[in-house]
Amino acid sequence: MLEKYLEVKQEVADALKTGKAVVALESTIISHGMPYPQNVETALKVEQIIRDHGAIPATIAILGGKLKVGLTTEEIEILGKNNNVVKTSRRDIPFIVARRGDGATTVASTMIIAALAGIKVFATGGIGGVHRGAQETFDISADLQELAHTNVAVVCAGAKSILDLGLTLEYLETQGVPVVGFGTEELPAFYTRKSGFPVDYRVDDAQDLATAIHAKWELGLNGGVVVANPIPAQYEMDYDTITNAIENALIEADEKGIKGKESTPFLLGKVKEITAGKSLESNIQLVYNNAKLGAQLAVQLAKLN
């Protein structure tokens, strides 16, 4: 029945069948996260970085109603140029599929489709989380619930700094999701290496990380793992600059009544505007860094399986 909906690229299917390392990649970053042509260039470079570190990339999207695991260059180009691609989370998947539409997958929906295909590692920019003011709005990303019960390790540069990082960590703790700092004891905040919040565990080696994740799932402790991988120091933004940019963007979003799934792209766009484009370069570099670690982790996990 699943074959009716799921279409796995042959290269990815062969890798999974023979136990080789595969890394899932989202597509919202292509359609909603960056302007053209940087979005397509970044997506293709990320795939190459994963190959260079011994794994097979599997960019995930919904095209023509099919859950696609592994895209061609032409399909990535379509996502990069098409303004009518729907930002797709868990709740949206059945409707995009039923309408034979095109959907760009968020962290949550990428995790779902990756798990359906049997992929255990996913590299992205940053996860969603609890939005500021969620005490009144209840605006909490579906990414966190997906991390609570879907067996995929998510390599990211922490949670986006436009969020309430303290409440995001509290939510993940309640759901039993480990937040692991790779080479750090502090949660990175996307554009910056520091946030002021400690992680649950620090791990300095991809092999040690794979061993712990493998044990978690072998023990039947279902759910994901957040692998918080700080942006390389030379690309991080000044903490005060980015904090002020975010505060100003949040004020404008509130004044314009921008909420829900529209809030993240608006806020990131405003931060890019306020920082004169510097945030986009940081965003691209942290994604490259996460792709590298994602491939290293997938290679080590494949050895254990």
List keywords for this structure.
alpha/beta, eleven-stranded mixed sheet, single chain, 305 residues
Structure, explained:
With 305 residues, the chain is α/β, with parallel strands linked by helices. It has a single domain (2-304), classed as 3-Layer(aba) Sandwich (Indigoidine synthase fold), CATH 3.40.1790. The chain contains 13 helices and eleven strands. Strands 1, 2, 3, 4, 5, 6, 7, 8, 9, 10 and 11 form an eleven-stranded mixed β-sheet that branches. The longest helix has 27 residues, at 278-304. The two termini are 26 Å apart. The relative contact order is 0.14. The model has no long low-confidence stretch (mean pLDDT 93).
Domain count: the total is 1
What is the average per-residue confidence, as pLDDT, rounded to a whole number?
A: 93
Instruction: Report the sheet-strand fraction.
Output: 5-15%
Specify the oligomeric state: single chain
Radius of gyration: 18 Å
Low-confidence stretches: none
What is this structure, in a nutshell?
The chain has 305 residues and is of the alpha/beta class.
Topology (elements, then pairings):
Blueprint: E1 6-8, H1 10-17, E2 22-25, H2 28-33, H3 38-52, E3 56-63, E4 66-69, H4 73-81, E5 86-88, H5 93-98, E6 103-105, H6 107-117, E7 121-123, H7 134-137, H8 142-149, E8 153-156, H9 165-174, E9 179-182, E10 201-203, H10 206-218, E11 225-228, H11 239-256, H12 263-274, H13 278-304
Parallel strand pairs: 1-4, 2-3, 2-7, 5-6, 7-8, 8-11, 9-10, 9-11
Antiparallel strand pairs: 3-4, 3-6
